Amino acid sequence: MIPQANASAFAPAQIKPHAPAPSFHPDTISTLNQLRLIAMRCRCAARTDLFHACALLSLDRNTAQGAHAEILMRCLEQALGKRPLFHRPGSQEISFDEAWLARMIQAIRTGDEDSFRFLLCARVPRLNRRNLAFLLRGVTDAFSQV
Questions:
Q1: pLDDT tens, position by position, 33-62
Q2: Among 66, 83, 105, 123, which residue has the least CB neighbours within 10 Å?
Q3: Can you spell out the DSSP letters for the chain?
Q4: When comparing pLDDT for 132 and 11, which is higher?
């Protein structure tokens, strides 16, 4: 005798609603939207080596506000080991990569070094951490002055 299959085993999977978007300070959302815009412009630009780009930026203390952000967007794929997902500026939806960046920016702005280090170490290989931290601090400082 063949056992009867349980009907509930073949029921369609329950679709879980998306988790609510994390809430961030309005300044952080503003910075995120500026980074989204820069990411759109950098899509077809050549990728830049993270170490080389940071070395050039550290030599010129008077770099433009957007220089750190543009280098960050062009090197983020190298630092993470995968291409990050960015939505259009103004979008209410926030990707995992955007939320990660926003949390790091908030940690820098609030002086929460422990959270910043945790977030950085959770996704970025040791080789790239110092340079990415340099770029993120530069972006945060530049956009805080606006």
A1: 888 888 887 666 555 665 555 555 554 555
A2: 83
A3: -PPPPPGGGGSPPPPPPPPPPPP--HHHHHHHHHHHHHHHHHTTSPP--HHHHHHHHHH-TT--HHHHHHHHHHHHHHHHTSPPP-PPTT-S---HHHHHHHHHHHHHHHT-HHHHHHHHHHHS-HHHHHHHHHHHHHHHHHHH--
A4: 132
**Contact by Cβ (8 Å): 135, 58:** no
Distance CA 99, CA 103 (A): 6
pLDDT digits (tens, 9 = 90+) for 54-66: 555 554 555 555 6
Contacts of 139 (CB under 8 A, 6+ apart): 31, 35, 68, 69, 72, 105
Distances (CA, A) of 93 to 4, 33, 78, 103: 44, 11, 24, 15
pLDDT reported for residue 45: 56
Burial class (CB in 10 A: 0-12, 13-18, 19+), 10: exposed
Residue with tokens 């005798």, as numbered in its chain: 1
